[in-house]
Specification:
Oligomer: single chain
Number of domains: 1
Structural class: mainly alpha
Order of helices and strands: EEHHH
Strand order of the largest sheet: 1-2
Number of helices: 3
Largest sheet: 2 strands, antiparallel
Strand content: 5-15%
């Protein structure tokens, strides 16, 4: 008698037909257990990648925000540098009337930017460590689960007359699994490419921001010197 068994799984339901008059031999039990584990491992990768992608997206948003705020700092910095005689402001004629900058607010904005970029650094370090572990754990042929899982059913198909599982249903389900696995593998390598892109954006942010910070330090010292002279 043929019995259809549906094993619910978050990756995809496993639907197999069994002949309940045949007692499964150990090799069949082991093969199917391995097949079920392949679903578990693939789902674990998918869940992990989804979590890390969300964290990368948040880091990317922070990078965009810090980059935008850096531009605002740089604009006011150029005005202060012109006022202190460090450099001459380009297109000064475009500024109509007086330019007012609250020095205290300016430095508070710079300090907040620095604190936020330090907090981002800690997140990038964590993401980099995770990325490196994930890359190191890739198997041969860029498989994201152990390739042994793909050979788990090799002995079942040729011995179709001995096994309780109907190999036609097994093959159908197996093909559906391979399709889902392919999507997860694609998702994984999309994540690693995205990670490299965001790490590059972060490096560029740090490089450009450090130049701005050094200019802010110069302006800060010149203002202190100016106050001393005026006192």
């Amino acid at each position: 008698m043929i019995k259809t068994i549906v094993k619910e799984h978050p990756l995809k339901n496993i639907t197999l037909d069994f002949d309940d008059e045949i007692t499964p031999l150990p090799f069949e039990q082991e093969a199917l257990q391995s097949y079920y584990e392949a679903h578990d491992k693939t789902w674990e990768v998918k869940e992990h990648v989804s979590k890390i992608q969300a964290e990368l997206k948040a880091a990317d948003d922070t990078i965009e925000d810090l980059s935008f705020r850096r531009l605002g700092i740089e604009q006011e910095l150029e005005i202060l540098e012109d006022w202190l005689g460090v450099t001459e402001l380009e297109d000064k004629e475009l500024f109509d009337g007086e330019i007012t900058i609250d020095i205290g607010t300016f430095f508070a904005v710079c300090d907040k930017h620095n604190v936020d970029i330090q907090n981002l650094y800690e997140k990038i370090v964590d993401l980099t460590e995770t990325y490196n572990r994930d890359i190191e754990n890739i198997y041969d042929d860029d498989a994201v689960i152990n390739p042994e899982y793909f050979n788990a059913l090799d002995e079942v198909y040729p011995r179709y007359e001995e096994v309780s599982v109907h190999t036609v249903s097994l093959d159908d389900d197996h093909q559906a699994f391979l399709e889902e696995y392919g999507k997860v593998e694609e998702l994984f390598f999309h994540y690693t490419a995205l990670a490299r892109e965001i790490f590059d954006k972060y490096k560029n942010l740090v490089d450009t921001t450090q130049i701005i910070y050094r200019r802010v330090e110069v302006v800060d010292q010149l203002l202190r010197d100016k106050l001393k002279r005026e006192e």
